[in-house]
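Researcher: Quick sanity check before group meeting.
Model: Go ahead. Protein one:
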Amino acid sequence: MREVDLSSSSILIVDDQQPNVELLEQILGMQGYRKVASTTDSRQVATICSELNPDLILLDLHMPHLGGLEVIEQLRCLPSDLYVPILVLTADITPEAKRQALQSGASDFLSKPFDVTEVLLRVRNLLETRFLYLQVQNQNSLLEETVRARTSALEAAQDALVRKNEELSLALAKASEVAELKSQFLANINHEIRTPINGILGMVNLLTDSELNAEQQECIDMLRSSSDWLVKVMNDILDVSQLGSGKARIERRMFDPRILMEELSTVYRSRAHAKGLKFYSTVTPAVPRRVSGDPGKVRQVLDQLLGNAVKFTESGRVSLSAELLHETCDALTVRFAVDDTGIGITEEQRSRLFEPFVQGDGSLTRRYGGTGIGLTLSKKLVELQGGELGLDDRPGGGTTAWFTATLEKLPAEDLMEEGKIPTLR
């Protein structure tokens, strides 16, 4: 144990013989103990202890009026939770005397006549015991205070967490309600707009069947194109709303990827040729003719990528391809890609492309048009099919937009010939 300065300890001497008291005071004074009190009347001990709060009591065992054993019992009954060692002074060194004193609560014995060395050693040992006891009590108090503080902080944090969870639950319920209302609103708006557009398209078809001059035919073609574009925009907005509210679902039905590619190629080949662009379409032989998946969503994503490729390419070519990436006993992963020699894309634009209602460059909206939701919608549709969508730049300009789709295998039928098979020209 580290060295402790015990000279400031408070010591009480209780002995009915004044010479014994003076001798003990002299011995303790020689050792440097400065706070020493004494009394020869054992009846005053309880009162003195209440005022002095001694760290050690030297108590004579045999005294008139109130014996040492009675004093010990009286002291131990005082309302105090602190341990005060009691050193019994006695000339009776019989085992019975020691047993009675220990049973009453004494801490140690000091035989009369006094030996100076023994007095100092026993006093020091008991004071060190007292000091260690107080140190433990202090540490326990600090620990209890720390536990109380941390418990209080934990309870406060738990209450705050409960309140925050309640607030989040309310906010989530409100957000769900708002999302549902928004979805219903968009569906209603879509229906309300689609109804007059269908009427417009019907009238356009009737006018197309009539005899028109070149200028009238051009106006009708422009009206049909604008109506088709408006329908596509409304469909995209409705799809984004459904995906955001978790209502979109994947359909599973049989389709032929080659026929899907051929149909899209027929549409976009004519658009590419109108801009003076070359158009190519290839499907690797490993892609089977019969698969199960959602051809509508595959077509929707390809339609978006091909539309962007033709829109943002001023010269050169646009290519559409499909290849088998991975195959298991019951599923396969097909990679669809649209490659162009268009304006390309910067890193800054790439980081913003998949944000809703954002185009890579604000000037693109003015020059090429568009809502900025196409790629966002495509990305969500691809993820819904268990795939991923990406854009790759090529040195010298141009972009490759690709996505993967996980499709279910069906019994193989007619296998395609080896090599890349072009679709219908």
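Researcher: Fine. The other one?
Model: Protein two, sequence then structure:
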Amino acid sequence: MWGHLGELGYAGLEVINVAGYRRLLPVLAVAAAAAVAAGCGPGAILTSESPDQAVSAALQSAQTTPLRMSLTGDLGLDTASLGNLPASIQTALGEVGNGGSATGQLAQESSARRQLTASAAGHSLTLVEYDGHGYVSQDGGAFAELSEALPSSPVASPSQLSSAVAALSFQDQGPATVDGVSTEKYSAAITVSTLEKLAQDLGGSGSGSSELAPVLAMLSPYVTGSGSVDLWLSTTDGSLVRAALAGSLTVDVGAAASALAGLGSSAGLGSSAGLGSLPTGSLGVTLSLDADVSDYGGPVTVTKPTATSTLPAMGGAMGGMSQWMGSFLGSS
């Protein structure tokens, strides 16, 4: 039972299918960088709006407005107490190691054309979305095209974004000057429960977060931690000048595995006896991400890559990504 149920549980954590890739990118921008960019319209006076109104309008514009963004991030993993993991998970964790630092550059021409290049420890990965097609290049090599077409509607609706912002509950922290730009700062605390609600609110209409919501719901009793997200919006036009995310969490893997085993047994899937020991220990994760936006609303062009090969959907593509992540983070 555990072998079967464990594969299902870990699959939920490891695999995001190609069909959800394009819709997931704006969601990741909201959850991890707080926004790809922002805009409340020329002459917007942020202090006359509620935090929810200012941030919601910003995120809505972020999905389609041309922009560039520079990213810096750090990921830390503490796996010292983990034991009895399936071989596939041990391999994946071994490749990623204890995490590392990375930088990135995002160029967005429109909601249908984006390019993200991430670099760390002498390695790079470039992802391109172009009119419904996805492309991947490692270390500046030739591009491979994803075998599945990307969804045609990547943007979240205004109601979805409003619900997500309400779940995070941003607070106005007052004026601040960032790189000579007059801004208004907005901050929100992040907990496991707010992330779960965020995934649920953005999970409608088949967005990529619909795959995250059940995973968060399953893990929430076994996760502790917190974080924060800060946004600095220009008081001139409402555009995002800077965003920062920081947080840490601990997952009690042993307790979660035992609970899954118990659920499988009660569902008539059998006992874990004879199928090996359940995982034990806890996984610690720390994350920080800073983003600076430039060329908001300016001329940004994303070029369609020429693919020389095709990446298989689902497992094949993720297998390649896992190997790349090992070289990307392992030596950092």
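Researcher: One line on it for the slide.
Model: Residues 185 and 242 are 9 Å apart (CA to CA).
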